[in-house]
Amino acid sequence: MITLGIETSCDETAVALLRDGYEILANVIYSQADLHARYGGVVPEIASRDHVRKLPYLMEEALAEAGVDWGEIGLVGVTYGPGLIGPLVVGVSYAKGLSVALEIPFVGVHHLAGHLFAHRLAHPDVPPPFLGLVVSGGHTELVVVKSWDEFRVIGTTRDDAAGEALDKLGRLVGLGYPAGPTIDSLAREGDPGAIPFPRPMLGEGFDTSFAGLKTAAVRWLKDHPHPDLRDLCASYLEAIVDVLVDKAIRAARIYELERIVVVGGVAANSRLREAFPTRAAERGMRVFFPPPELCTDNAAMVAACAHYRFAERGHRDPLSLSPEANLPLDGWGTDKASGGDPDGKEVV
Ligand code: KG4
Ligand code: ZN
After folding, report:
1. Ligand 1 centroid to residue 316 C-alpha, Å
2. Which of 135, 141, 177 is nearest to 292 (CA)?
3. Is 347 a residue whose pLDDT tops 50?
4. Which of 226, 250, 282, 333 holds its CA 20 to 30 A away from the CA of 100?
């Protein structure tokens, strides 16, 4: 069975084709980063309009790359939240149109659940239970994943997410948007101990708060107007890595989980990928990261989630399913919580 995945929750337009839930036939991504760079962040209206423009081309590109015809697609899955509402509406409407035109079932996917399904693609032999750490531009979530449809959020972002904290440092020192990848490479050449940045909420509960770290950087930059960017990035990143690793390991210990799965854009970070497994191994735990291209936003993860929901849980969504900017992950995936208009008619 071939599943089409569509992702438009923020500034990446992504389309993927997946065979039987695991085999990636095509995974095409168009990043709008250049369009938003001059504004220092994503402009929702520009993002929505660009998704409308690019989706049809990406779709054709994915079909060509996979060598698949329209008629071979058996299921369409799309991210319907959380994210920017305009961009979500574009992807969901496009997916609904294809569901009707191709007479195939339609499944809505939670974006963060999608990120966790990137692990299923990368490590099909390492199933739940595990502790999930979702670190992206908008989220820092600690999630107990008991099974592929039982997500319990035990810690969340109080203010700035890990990726947001990196992007804000980038804005402060002119590294462009998104700054994560640039900070990643600069940090590799810097001294992580050069600047004693705070470790916000280290050892305190499972929520995270990185706004204070950015404030500390602003203050430090006032006294050091010509910083060595390599040391600045390495020290700032190290503070984030320390907090993430500490919280995840503590949570895994308390919830008696031996495996930690790290996903989301920040999971592509080389320092995090290097430091985490060593520190976890000291506690007898194992850490898994999908390959970097499945950490950042993509539609293969969306297709993987949709395929699981449909093929293994018999779930499909009504065409009345509405995008939700703040869709919660806690409890998502149980049929009760899957959303949609209760009066909506199942059309397909
Ligand atoms: O998951 P994602 O692609 O989109 C969201 O759902 O937010 O994550 C984007 C975030 C951005 O903040 C970006 O700066 C960060 O991931 N990021 C990185 C790296 N690649 C992307 N952060 C650190 N190191 C990287 N290599
Ligand atoms: Zn994401």
Report:
1. 30
2. 135
3. no
4. 333
